[in-house]
Amino acid sequence: MDLSNRTTRRVAALVGAAATAALLVPLAGAAQATPGPAPAVTAHVVAAAKATAPGFLGAADLPPAPGTSWTAGPVTAGMPEWTPFCLEGVLPAKGGATWHRAFNTDLDTWAVQVSVTAPSTGAARRLAAAGERAAAGCAADWLRATPGGTASWADYGRVAAGDGAHVYGVHTSVPDSEPGAHLIGVGRDGRTVTFVQWARMGDLTDAPVTAFKGTTAKAVHRLH
Q1: 113-126: b or e for each residue (b if 16 or more CB lie within 10 Å)?
Q2: Where in the sequence is the signal peptide annotated (predicted)?
């Protein structure tokens, strides 16, 4: 969900109650177990793998939000209520297991992290590559679907963490609505891929790119 659509929801939320809502948005499946001589042990390993979420960011790991502070929701199995902007064609992923965590402030800044443990390293590598392609092509895709809108994007480069991470920025605007700025981090460590998205009203000129790259690195390091 992009920020232009979220504006109405944000205003309503601030007037009604300061509830922590899911923002953007995972998947569920069975983790592979190593064959063993005792089927009961194998089943137990599968159940434990499905129940164990990777490590997630905390509120203090996000870029500072001037004038307010971050609130972190619980780590929850499955996708958020809304698939993260730009990643609608990538998430929810097929196979593996998904968890998410939403972050909110009292103002117009919010974030979400979605992590997927894929069935194999190869599947995780393909998922991360698909996420990078989606982020890089998001502005053009959004423009094709939004007559009268304007959009831009930026490649903020790779981040040294785990098996690699990449950060992108996307700005969108439609007439008579607040513009939205999104920072998107995609990273992988082994079979686990994490997607981190930060967003607020405005453009990319003053987006906290350096801090967000640090956030993305922490997200990947925390996975295992």
Answers
A1: bbbbbbbeeebbbe
A2: 1-33
